[in-house]
Amino acid sequence: MDNLPPLPPPPDPGQPGHNPTQRGFYPLDLDAITRNAWSIFRFAWPTFIGAALIPNLIVYAIAIPVHASIWPEVSQWAAAYRAAIERGVLPTLPPIAPSTVALLVLVSILGALGGLVASAAVVSIGDSVFRGRPASIRGALRTALRRLPALIGAGLLYALAVFGVSLLGFTFGALFMVGGGVAAFLGLVVIVAAVAAVIFIALRWSLLVQTIVLEGVGPVDGLSRSWRLVAGSGWRVLGYFLFIALVSGVIGAIVGAIPDAILRLSPESVTSAVVGIVFQGVATVLVAPIVLVSLFLYYDLRFRHGEPAPQPGEDRRAA
I want to staple 32 with a disulfide (CB 3.0 to 4.6 A). Which of 28, 103, 278, 290 is the partner? Predict the structure, then answer.
């Protein structure tokens, strides 16, 4: 750990948020955040990739046989739907067995849990490397699993909040729109407001993984901490997460296009489904380290709120 990435040039002391007690590392702009995130990843990329790979290997070891077994039924359903749409008629679709739906839901839940563990492990490794601590795949996954119940609890609270706001907004919006005229306009306003509220909630709770993993707090405290940290920086945080989504989307699209471009498999075949799942897993692993951008955003928001923010190699120097 003696070859930590070099520090960026110190900022102008006249910049907003400058704190001379933190030796000029903060504040961080987009260039500094992306540069440091890339430097940390490049320094310990095998550890990051390994920590993201292991939980996803477990998930896809289950997902691949499940998709292979149910793909003929799902493919038949999709083909009937496309044919009905092309004819311009109301789709009359073959029924899907409840067991198939249950398996799809199970795989989706496992995928979400695997992604959560991978993200938490990447955050743990990134924080350790930045502070100058030893970082290992086993230690990071152990930390991620230890914090998983809190992450699941916070995720459920997050989902309930989003569902509640969406349900209320769209229900009242639809009721208004039935009346027509001015009421319809008010209904549209209510629906737009509900969408804006969901985006607002998503932004305020966007640092949930960082607060729970690095601060060791519970679900409610993690939500509260993320809410307070993002307060006053909503537009900036939105820009960062749009950037993360753009980079992740480009990587996912490139990796996802490889099977069609090279293998040219029939979309209805089981082989196509299996290969698609495999490449989806590859994309998930490659995209996981993007969370390092939000890690440095978390550090910077702590600094801007006047809280102690970590310094590069501080634990190594202390030792």
Answer: 28
pLDDT digits (tens, 9 = 90+) for 234-289: 999 999 999 999 988 888 888 877 777 776 666 666 666 677 777 777 888 888 88
Q: How far apart are CA 148 and CA 154, in angstroms?
A: 10
Q: Is the pTM of this model over 0.90?
A: no
Tell me the C-alpha distance between 190 and 176, whole Å. Answer: 9
Residue 274 to residue 67: CA distance in whole angstroms: 7
CB atoms within 10 A of CB 157: 16
pLDDT digits (tens, 9 = 90+) for 2-45: 444 444 443 443 344 444 444 578 999 999 999 999 999 999 99
d(CA 123, CA 129): 10
Decide: 276 and 259 in contact? Cβ < 8 Å: yes
Lookup: tokens for 214:
């690095």
Segments of the chain assigned E as strands: none
Residue 178's Cβ-side half-sphere holds a number of Cα atoms within 13 Å equal to 5
3 state SS of 18: coil
Report d(CA 48, CA 286) in Å as an integer. 10
